[in-house]
Design brief:
- The protein is mainly α and about 150 residues long.
- The chain has one domain: Four Helix Bundle (Hemerythrin (Met), subunit A), CATH 1.20.120.
- The chain has four helices and no strands.
Length: about 150
């Protein structure tokens, strides 16, 4: 939930990783060299900010699950940490929407309609469909023993 999601199979033209999304944007929108440079800068800025927020999330999650080490859970601290994690998630969503707005802003009028057609591809990366395969710790038959 607070780390980068796995990238789903079946994205347009085999694009499955963030790098592939970058190439998809450049290719589908037919960016000029100048637009590619602007886009690369936007991607670096976005990734840097997201990495920083991911680090904050990891730190808070470590503290959050550290609550399990106590005999009793401090409900006030738990609520505070949950609130902090929610704020980070909200910041990440806002940052990502702002990033895509900046990407759209470097598009010319013809490219903007193509950009809007890519939104479903962006969503596949941001909110992947559930995987069909079982979690490695799940058993086919719950009553079985190791």
């Amino acid at each position: 939930m607070f780390r980068r999601p796995p990238h789903p199979p079946g994205m347009m033209q085999g694009h499955e990783r963030p790098g592939d999304i970058r190439q998809l944007v450049i290719h589908e929108l037919r960016f000029s060299k100048e637009q590619e440079e602007q886009y690369a800068l936007l991607v670096r800025e976005h990734r840097s900010a997201m990495d920083s927020m991911d680090e904050q999330s990891r730190t808070i999650l470590t503290e959050y699950f550290g609550l399990l080490k106590s005999a009793t859970t401090d409900k006030i601290q738990q609520d505070s940490l949950e609130h902090s994690l929610g704020n980070i998630q909200q910041e990440k969503l806002s940052l990502t929407l702002n990033h895509f707005s900046k990407v759209k802003a470097i598009c010319n009028d013809a490219q903007k309609s193509g950009f809007e057609n890519l939104i479903p591809e962006f969503l596949k990366v941001l909110n992947p469909a559930p995987r069909e395969n079982h979690h490695p710790h799940e058993r086919e038959n719950p009553g079985e023993r190791d």
